[in-house]
Write a structure and sequence with these properties.
The structure is a single chain. This protein is an all-alpha fold. The longest helix is centred in the N-terminal third of the chain and has 12 residues. It has a single domain, classed as 434 Repressor (Amino-terminal Domain) (Orthogonal Bundle). This is Putative helix-turn-helix motif protein. It comes from uncultured marine Nitrospinaceae bacterium.
């Protein structure tokens, strides 16, 4: 897992969302989101920006810092 994929998972859990729910909020496919969280694909900036806003964190924190729950 990458820092980004770990942060996606941490933020999703912080929001108390399932992968299905967060994929719907982000308006992306469920499998696509699962691949982002697994580190199999890189999430586009637009998805990272939306998730940062939802989690009330900076984009820099999503990209570069390992977040803790």
């Amino acid at each position: 897992m990458t820092i980004l994929s770990e942060n996606l998972k941490t933020l999703r859990k912080k929001l108390n969302c399932t992968q299905m729910a967060i994929s719907e909020v982000l308006e992306i496919g469920f499998r696509t989101y699962v691949r982002y969280e697994a580190g199999e694909r890189d999430a586009p900036v637009s998805v990272m920006v939306k998730l940062a806003k939802l989690g009330n964190v900076s984009l820099d924190r999503v990209l570069t810092t390992k977040n803790t729950p």
